[in-house]
Amino acid sequence: ESIVTYLGLTARDRAPQTLPFHYSYGLSVLHSHLVAGGSMAFCGSSVIEDGFIDTAERLGCTGLSGVPFTFELLERISLRERMWPALRYMTVAGGRLSPNLVSLYAEAMAQHGGAFFAMYGQTEATARMAYLPPAQAAAHPDCIGIAIPGGSFRIEGTEGELFYSGPNVMMGYATARRDLSRGAEIGELATGDIAAMTEAGLIRLVGRAKRFSTIAGLRIGHEAIEWALRARGITCAVTGNDEAITVHAEATEQDVIRHAAEAAAIPQRYVRLVRLEALPRLASGKVDYCACAAPAAPAPSTPMASSLLEEFRATFYPRAVTEKD
Length: 325
Prior knowledge:
By secondary structure, the protein is an alpha/beta fold. The protein has helices spanning 2-7, 24-35, 52-58, 68-76, 99-112, 134-137, 222-230, 256-264, 308-316, and strands at 14-16, 39-41, 63-66, 89-92, 115-120, 130-132, 146-147, 152-155, 159-165, 189-197, 203-208, 212-215, 218-221, 236-240, 245-250, 271-276. A 5-stranded mixed sheet has the order 3-4-5-6-7. The protein has a 4-stranded antiparallel sheet with strand order 8-9-10-11, with no helix packed on it.
């Protein structure tokens, strides 16, 4: 209902299904349209599939939602020059869209007579906690905006961890069937992000307090990658942001980038590697992650594959690609 309110959804709205329903953001798009009495359309399996835009226009789609990678794909097909008349809003969540693309789509939708909503959410808060008012997107593309209706934020200090409260916050984590019988245990959600309030009254994220990255809509725990690599005998520390993860590894002959990509289930182009003689450590003996925060060089480009199949396998690694795909 909160999402319906700030997007202004009505029974006349229809969205193409661009996100899987087992993904919290995709399920949120479905539920918000259904609760408004609207509908969804199946226009194809990908936004860059031949005929997707024509089908969306023919079926009267009024909105389009995606993760940051969706908008990278839309740039390939020049969607900003191909917007159909009924398109009145676009939304992005599931990771940080580059400020440049936020500005471009905010301006394009404004010229089209519509609105572009850059949003911020987590599965623990039913997909959405904040949105950037469309009128302020072009001028403040690096901000997540304001709390959704019914929700509120608190920042610990002038610049500190961001906390969210609202009826969409989960009850807690369940790891076994018996946990489902427990009552609500969380009144305020610690987002794990470090934030500050701008003079315009908008929230801007400046870093992470918790160690995870959101890449292509997937939440990737840095510790999980460390465990997977250490199981292979690789002493390492993992840092990262929503653009890439960086593995700081002590000397090893193993293919660290390949193993990290496999553990995170992401293509190797999202992995960086820094080789060290020894990991920096605090006096306590713990890894000094602040000292590991320096940016790393991009992963080296792979040699040109000898066949199209090999090129696809390299691109989608570690997902298997066969000749039938």
